[in-house]
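Incident log entry.

Two folding requests arrived from the same account within the same minute. Monitoring flagged them as a possible duplicate submission, but the sequences differ. Recording both here for audit purposes.

Request one:
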Amino acid sequence: MMPSQKERMLSGKLYRAADTEIRAVNFRARRLTRLFNQTTEEQMAYRQTLLKELFLKTGSEIYIEQPFHIDYGQHTTIGEHFYANYDCIFIDTAPITIGNDFYLALRVGLYTAGHPIDAAIRNEDLEYGYPITIGDSVWIGANVVVNPGVTIGSNVVIGSGSVVTKAIPDNVVAAGNPCRVIRPITKEDQDFWAKQKADYVADPDVH
């Protein structure tokens, strides 16, 4: 039996998006994101219901600022304690998998979709997608683009404006276009921020 266009899409093979099954999943995501983007601050429980219906799987805590856009939703898995700021876009042609304790700043794009470099093939409306996988405890700065096929490790900070084209290992600060490792995250970083937290806790105006 020949694979469907959706099966080809999810396996990283060339496919055509103008397919009945694929369009049905896309229309579902458009409807749910439209409803989500139209909710008010008095409808927080309804927002959670919509998001949990939209994504393949989420943790118990998920918070997304409006507006938010996604192609399919059913291809995206999100862990516990997830936050995305305004104007984030997920193109989940291929699976997007995100770990726990994850922060997205403004206008971050996670883009799994690609188009052939050869113009003749591209003009036949053939496209492909490669998965994006992101670990735990990651903070991605504003206006970052994560390209198809990228893996980002755990305990990572991606600087604002970066274009991530290759894998980023655990425990680093990375930035640039193309994004590259700037330095490791060290015990000195941990000590510095532990001191900042201690000062915060000791501040009588905080409580």
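Request two (distinct sequence, not a duplicate):
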Amino acid sequence: MAMLVLLFSLFAGFAHAEPAAININTADVAALASLNGIGQSKAEAIVAYRDANGPFQSSEDLANVKGIGERTVEKNAERLTVE
């Protein structure tokens, strides 16, 4: 019985695991596309913007990329990092 409780708690813990943080200054297109509201084309736009303008100073700067608004940045705020 104790083994079943332990297994259940392990599986329940995995179900609630937080997605990994994404450094928007180093992430590739695939990683960026995993963000909420960011698909392949917006991820490519982020990389192109970063290449043209240099690294982002803060995650809020992501809203400077055409097609990405403040709401998208807010939805992903807990996953975004800038290093």
